[in-house]
Every structure is written in structure tokens, then in C-alpha cells.
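User: Let's play a game. I give you a shape written as C-alpha cells, and you guess the letters that built it. Ready? Here's round one.
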């Protein structure tokens, strides 16, 4: 057995042991490797499991946008199925049967990008809150196991940064949750896109005032969706969502996955200087 094979076997065993101790998650996945003779998927699907920072929005909500609306602009030869929904945490995503809907749709060759924390950290809403080192970790372990059991590839995405500055520098609002994701990526040999670090560094380089343009900061009357104006440091404008999608693409291109080869080198749709006015690529 090679070192790589031993590491993957160890990873599967570790996941099985972790899942055996989960009272809060009903996970029917087995950790057997996907059959090597599985029929190839003509067009792989990339599923997005996340919250409002990734979700699609109807035209009447413009310019509010999620990065999930634009990541498909730079993924060639795959289909993107954005299942992200505002206000969801790992807990509510499971309890509302949203994760199970993805799990039963996954096929060999598919990928699922998993980004949660913004709502998991909300202690004021019990239906959402999960502590990082216990329930959050356990939910992510079950997601990893479920995806792998279908022959799909799970990719963990650390939570995209909020527009929160202190003493002139962007602050990591979900550091404990990001740390859990990084730890699980190492423990179970899961591809990781460290969007928290990349996005925080990105807005830090732009500066507090300039990076306002990436978020929903508008005066009264600028957009019908926000007649009274808005100062939202969590959700993205069209340009912000495009920039975040570009950072995700950067991360995906660096993973040791099949999806990495589908990331386009042409990022013009995500780095453009002016807004399109919709979630169209260009």
C-alpha cells in the first residue's frame, strides 16, 4: 500500500469513527470508496451548500448578490446548482432537509462546495446556532462522509469575510469556525478553499472605505430594492460577489481535484471594472 493510499484509508476510518458518535445527525453514508467502474458523468455538477453570501437573488433584490451566482462564469464544462439559501446554518440546512436533497442528487464526478458559519455563529437564534468545536464540526464531518459515499468530491470553503475593520484592518469574525474547517481538511484529507483568509486580505488591501463598494452600502433612492438606503457589512453588491467568486476560483484552481482543471484562466467576467446590472456573466 502506498503512502497516499494509506492516508486515504486512514481518512475513511477516521470519518467512520467520528460519525458513529453523532447523535444529532442521521447519516446513512458508508465510507467505502466509489466503484472504479462507475459510469462516467457526461456533465459534472457543482453543488453549492451555503447561506445568503452565496445564494442567488431575484432581479428585484439587485444589486444584492451572492458569489454563487458568478462562480459558474469561470467553470468550464460543468453545471452549477446553487442550493445556498439565506439565513441557513449547518443545523438548519440539515433540519430543513436541504442537505439530504443535495446528498440524494450527488453522482460520481460531482462536487459540492460547503461554506457555512455566518448563521451558525448566531447565538440569538437557537434554530441556527451551532458551537464551532462540537455540532459544527460534527455536521461538517457528516457532509464529507455523505458526499464521498456517492463518489462526489466535497470541498470545504471557509466563511467569506464581513466588512468589519478594527484599527484600520479587516477582522476575522468567524475565526473559530474557519479553524475547524482547516482542521477537518487536514484530518480527513479534504480539499479546502480558504476564502476567509483570501477575502479578508483582499478587502484589507483595498482599505475600509474603498471596500465599501463590495458590500451593500447605498444612499436612499439609489436602488428600488433599498428605497431607504442600506449599510450592510455582510452581503455583497454585484461587484463584491464577482470579486469573491474570483477568489473562490483562485482557491479551486489550487486544489488537487478534477474540478481544478475546469477553472478558466480567463477571469474577465469576475474582474471587470464595471457592473453588468444583473447576475449575467457579461
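Assistant: Ready! My guess for every position:
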Amino acid at each position: 500500500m502506498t503512502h497516499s493510499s494509506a492516508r486515504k484509508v486512514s481518512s475513511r476510518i477516521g470519518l467512520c469513527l467520528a460519525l458513529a458518535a453523532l447523535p444529532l445527525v442521521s447519516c446513512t453514508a458508508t465510507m467505502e470508496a466509489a466503484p472504479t467502474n462507475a459510469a462516467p458523468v457526461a456533465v459534472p455538477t457543482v453543488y453549492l451548500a451555503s447561506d445568503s453570501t452565496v445564494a442567488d437573488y431575484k432581479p428585484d433584490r439587485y444589486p444584492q448578490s451572492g458569489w454563487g451566482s458568478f462562480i459558474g462564469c469561470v467553470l468550464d464544462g460543468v453545471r452549477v446548482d446553487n442550493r445556498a439559501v439565506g439565513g441557513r446554518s449547518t443545523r438548519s440546512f440539515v433540519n430543513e432537509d436541504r442537505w439530504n436533497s443535495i446528498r440524494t442528487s450527488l453522482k460520481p464526478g460531482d462536487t459540492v462546495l460547503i461554506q457555512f458559519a455566518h448563521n451558525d455563529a448566531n447565538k440569538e437564534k437557537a434554530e441556527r446556532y451551532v458551537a464551532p468545536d462540537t455540532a459544527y464540526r460534527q455536521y461538517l464531518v457528516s457532509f464529507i462522509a455523505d458526499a464521498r459515499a456517492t463518489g462526489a468530491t466535497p470541498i470545504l470553503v471557509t466563511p467569506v469575510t464581513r466588512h468589519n475593520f478594527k484599527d484600520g484592518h479587516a477582522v476575522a469574525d468567524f475565526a473559530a469556525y474557519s479553524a475547524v474547517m482547516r482542521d477537518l481538511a487536514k484530518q480527513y484529507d479534504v480539499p479546502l478553499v480558504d476564502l476567509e483568509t483570501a477575502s479578508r486580505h483582499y478587502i484589507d488591501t483595498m482599505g475600509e472605505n474603498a471596500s465599501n463598494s463590495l458590500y451593500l452600502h447605498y444612499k436612499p433612492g439609489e436602488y428600488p430594492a433599498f428605497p431607504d438606503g442600506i449599510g450592510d457589512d455582510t452581503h455583497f453588491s454585484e461587484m463584491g460577489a464577482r470579486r469573491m467568486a474570483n477568489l473562490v476560483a483562485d482557491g479551486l484552481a489550487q486544489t488537487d481535484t478534477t474540478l481544478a482543471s475546469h477553472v478558466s484562466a480567463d477571469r474577465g467576467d469576475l474582474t471587470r471594472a464595471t457592473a453588468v446590472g444583473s447576475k449575467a456573466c457579461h
